[in-house]
User: What shape does this take?
Amino acid sequence: MNLPARRAFVALLAGAAAVVAARPLLAQQPTLTLPPVEVIGASPLIGSGIDRNTVPAATHVLDRDDLARQGPADLLGSLNRGIGGVSLDSASGNPFQPSLYYRGFAASALQGTSQGLAVYINGMRFNQPFGDTVDWDLIPGNAIDRLNVEGSNPVFGLNALGGSIDIRMKNGFIYNGSELSLSGGSFGQRQGQFEWGYRAGSFASYLAGTVLHQDGWRDLQSTDLQNVFGDFGWRGARGELHLNLTAAHSGLNGPGTAPVQLVAVDRSAQFTAPNFISNDYRAASINATFDLSDTISLQAVAYYRDLLQNVNNGNAPNDRPCNDGSGLLCTDSGVSTTFGGAPIADFLNGAQYGQLDVQRTSTHAYGASAQVTDAQDVFGLKNQFVAGLAFDGGRTQFNAASYVGGLTTDTRVFVGPGTVIVEAGTNMPVSVGITNATYGAYLADSLHLTDRLVATLSGRFNATFIESTDFNGGDLGGSHSFLHFNPAAGLTYEVAPWLTLYGGYAMANRAPTPAELSCASPANSCSLANFFVGDPDLRQVVAQTLEAGLRGKLKLAKDANLRYSLAFFRTDLDDDIAMVNSPTQGRAFFTNVGTTRRQGIEADLTYSDQRWRIWLLYALVDATFQSGFVASSPLNPGADASGNIAVQPGNRLPGIPLHQLKAGVDYKVTDKWTIGATLRAASSQFLFGDDANLVAPLPGYVTLGVSTSYQVTPNLQLFAWAENVTNASYSTFGTFSPTSSVFIAQAPGANMTQSVSPAAPFGIFVGLRATF
Assistant: This one.
């Protein structure tokens, strides 16, 4: 060995000896463990997250394990079980097409619902351009990595009146391997889910899909869902790029509401049919994030979506045999007519008539957003600044027509082919094209004034433009524009490592949707399937939210933690838009109803250790009208002789329970066997169409679910769950139906107009999950 090599060898031995000699001293030094930082999106785009503890609003996070806690991944069920302020109703009668409410604000697939939540998937706006609706059935739940539910934040754009739901999907960098689950059970349900993720160096792929069929437990109730999601990604030293592709199809038969006297005889019965919706959906998006420096990064997303929706809706008739012996059909306004003004004959010779409303909506949605995130210190203070631009647009072709035909005697199903109804000012075929575009510019800044005190300022300017063209030469053509700037400000203060206080103010707006603008006066009312006959103006809705609260996490033992939060909120909406009944039976219109208010409390408490997970959630949502107005509700038993109701300030908004209590427990009996139970309780809610609170509300309810899983091998799990274990009989949605215009064989002479959508009875399901 030469001299330099020998010296190097001796130096290496000396260094090793020094390390060995120092080991006892090193072992005596305390280990510094930094608390984990949970990041939440500062905007819809991926890559600009901030410490969740610095957000001056309530935040709720569900991850992939929460979604699959009792079996197959279940997005809506997990939101309903795991967030106190969330409730679901079932106006359509299909369990996979509910309206979701958070703090009294809706994200619903049903046209006619006033939408108050913004929903994003991987930075792509998911509210549909035509009515801001949210089609939950098109989202593959097992492909979700996590989702954030946040209080009002203007950075999330239109519809963030009550908050936002920001969904992040899996990709091959964060999920590797394969999983297959198969399950089935009550109501003829059969479901399969798969996912696969693979990474090779800088590239990764992920694929997930769901197939589901359910026969349903009510008459003519069924569901077919198929969806697939793919992510193809690249990751480099300073950036990441992803291509997302989604394809989905759904066929939803929902029996809707049924009169209470019919439900009393048979809870599974439907009133009139068919009530069928089919969705065909395709989406592609590209999202990217790049580090321009150690503190500055760029995030961007571009997307295109295509949705074709067909609706067949059987209803009670507005056209009946005339009383003058003419042998024709009549409405309350005169003789029924078809094309060319030709009168419609009484072709059933006085037998039971029905109406079929058919609509077809073809929507192409597209958009792009880009933002810069700067994490440089400002005057020596930790700071994060975000500035972005956003565009969301859409083109929609809407066609609709009504047919008068017969109804079967026993199940009240429409019998065609029927005759097209063409009645000026009442019921006309529609063909309209709509283009809408929203431009947004936003800023958000979080400045650490001290190690414990963080100030947040943000704002967004929204500009929305809507153009409609009536291809039938009617009154649907028009142009509308809506501009608004929404500021927000808040503070968070870490009193101790286990307690943070926060308070904030936020403003948000939503523009009237094309669906609402086209149906905005009693003279231009729409069928419940939303046929449009005019284009009057509506004012945009502006929300102002005040919120304060506390949150924290207390370590009780080595593996035992207690997480808690308490939030107080009040949101006032100016020029709120509601769908109110028209004097014409079965029709309604949108109108500004003045000021409404949602205020209340959310309290969450969760304990977890190696064996137990126990949670208790409570929400009080006091949703009221703050302005008085007179509305037509001719089927409401409390209406006056003219069919009107007088809404007073303080009357509660329909469909929103004042109190909700949710509790649950998961217990690991052994390392392989887990059991769980969840309880949900809700107080009463008023019926839709009873804004004046004149009729007894839907009763409250309590429902219990249980679940279990057993890990047979490291790669095979068996699971089972049951819903409504006590077989409670309750309803989550109520309204009014024209029972007198349709003969109900099961309840002859029924004259009560109250109508409900009954919840499912006891159901049990089993399945297995295999990982590879």
User: Anything to note?
Assistant: The helical segments are 3-28, 64-67, 75-82, 260-265, 514-517.
